Automatic annotation (TrEMBL):
Name of this protein: Alpha/beta-hydrolase
InterPro entries: AB_hydrolase_1 (IPR000073), AB_hydrolase_fold (IPR029058)
Organism of derivation: Mycena maculata
GO CC annotations on file: mitochondrial inner membrane
Biological process terms in GO annotation: cardiolipin acyl-chain remodeling; lipid homeostasis; phosphatidic acid biosynthetic process
Family label: Belongs to the peptidase S33 family. ABHD4/ABHD5 subfamily.
Basic and acidic residues biased stretches: 210-223
Organism phylogeny: Eukaryota, Fungi, Dikarya, Basidiomycota, Agaricomycotina
GO molecular function, one term: lysophosphatidic acid acyltransferase activity
Residue span of region Disordered: 210-256
Domain called AB hydrolase-1: residue spans: 92-400
Matching Pfam families: Abhydrolase_1
Length: 418
């Protein structure tokens, strides 16, 4: 264990006591405090809009109300104080399943520098029913056997609220930077609203490959990140060539577990619409410790202060009312492969599309490679796929320097008119 990592939560009495106190007090106020604690790492973040500002950008947090009562999306806005008339479309950062915009606290500075330099903006949004956005009821009317109907309903819950958010924000076009399930929804949004998407940057996207027996191993989400010895170098970005993809898939296959009785039980619960976050909510006193073990192990590459703040943030958004999390069994089958894989749906996309995977990812990079080929065959030669070294599924946290460099480079890449 590195010097900057935390031991398991049960070995940190003060942190555990603090977690228990937050367990009793979790709510909108404490979750806002937990999020703000992460965002205050940005020197240009302002809790209110009062007072002078001499920074090239200013960051504020707000709720954007949607048309339905009590529907809103939690939003971080990083806007240029000197907007350019011909600025590139803003970047919109979208988190993955059960996460929130606070997960990107190590990426906002680089994106803000891009926004300030280009006179543009960056937004980070919590999906409806997740993070600190409205926890509204999530229901599916289609019968279980109607897979396309279930998928469409679940997808619409998220992408239609994002479109409504876009209209409220008066944005003509956006570059979507999505992680995991957020990357999946970004592609689906672009398929439904293609004229509103300038580019897609997909970080370890979920739901891409079609093979239900592919090498994806969701259990690897619980593993600590790989060594960070080279994580400060942009040289850790490489093209996702065939041999490199096969190397990663071989590692994934070697760690794939057998279908044990407990795994079969989890698959059954998955199909029944069970959410893993229900476990944390139902365990009462043990909830903070379970999250503490996850955050200290999975984010061991962070500093002790960052890990503690991430733990508090994750605890607060996890204990909030279940909502959008119940989408997962409608969109993904057990094993985390899509019921309607993106590799078979991407061909209509005409904008630049960038796939990004970690070299220790549990998402299968072959799906990205096949998608790039399918896009090329459909006439879109603007698709790329990259591998980031020293990184797992949370590639943007495991190797932020490399990911930040790549994302900024892709934001500045000029689209080819087709």
């Amino acid at each position: 264990m590195g010097t900057n990592s935390l031991p398991p939560a049960h070995e940190i009495p003060t942190a555990f006591s603090a977690s228990l106190r937050s367990w009793w007090a979790t709510g909108e106020k404490t979750s806002a405090i937990a999020e703000e604690r992460l965002l205050r790492r940005l020197p240009f973040f302002r809790a209110d809009t009062l007072g002078p500002n001499d920074s090239p950008v200013v960051a504020t947090s707000s709720r954007i109300d949607l048309d339905k009562p009590k529907h809103y999306l939690n939003t971080l806005s990083i806007t240029s104080t000197n907007p350019a008339p011909n600025a590139p479309p803003p970047a919109v950062v979208l988190h993955g399943y059960g996460a929130g915009l606070g997960f990107f606290f190590n990426n906002f500075m680089a994106l803000a520098q891009w926004a300030g330099h280009r006179g543009s903006s960056v937004y980070a949004v919590d999906w409806l029913g997740m993070g600190r956005s409205a926890r509204v009821p999530f229901t599916i009317k289609s019968p279980r056997k109607d897979i396309p109907g279930r998928v469409r309903e679940a997808e619409s819950f998220f992408i239609d609220s994002l479109e409504e958010w876009r209209m409220k924000m008066k944005l003509e076009q956006m570059t979507l930077v999505g992680h995991s399930l957020g990357a999946y929804f970004s592609v689906v949004y672009a398929l439904k609203y293609p004229h509103r998407v300038n580019k897609l940057i997909l970080l370890s996207p979920a739901g891409v490959p079609r093979d239900p027996d592919a090498t994806t191993v969701p259990e690897r989400e619980l593993e600590p990140p790989p060594s960070h010895s080279n994580s400060t170098s942009s040289a850790s970005i490489e093209a996702a060539t065939g041999p490199k993809v096969e190397e990663i898939r071989a590692e994934q296959a070697s760690s794939r577990p057998r279908h044990s009785r407990s795994r079969r039980l989890l698959m059954y619960l998955w199909e029944e619409g069970w959410s893993p976050f229900q476990v944390v909510r139902s365990t009462f006193f043990w909830g903070p410790m379970l999250i503490g073990k996850y955050s200290s192990r999975r984010f061991s590459g962070l500093t002790e202060e960052d890990t503690r703040d991430m733990h508090d943030y994750i605890l607060n958004i996890t204990l909030a009312k279940g909502s959008g999390e119940y989408c997962i069994s409608h969109i993904l089958s057990p094993g985390a492969h899509a019921r309607m894989p993106l590799v078979d749906r991407v061909a209509p996309l005409k904008m630049p599309v960038t796939f990004v995977y970690g070299d220790h990812d549990w998402m299968d990079p072959e799906g990205g490679e096949q998608s790039v080929e399918n896009l090329r065959k459909a006439g879109n030669g603007q698709a790329r796929s990259y591998i980031i070294s020293n990184a797992g599924h949370h590639v943007y946290l495991d190797n932020p320097k490399a990911v930040n460099d790549l994302v900024v480079r892709e934001l500045d890449r000029r689209p080819v008119i087709q």
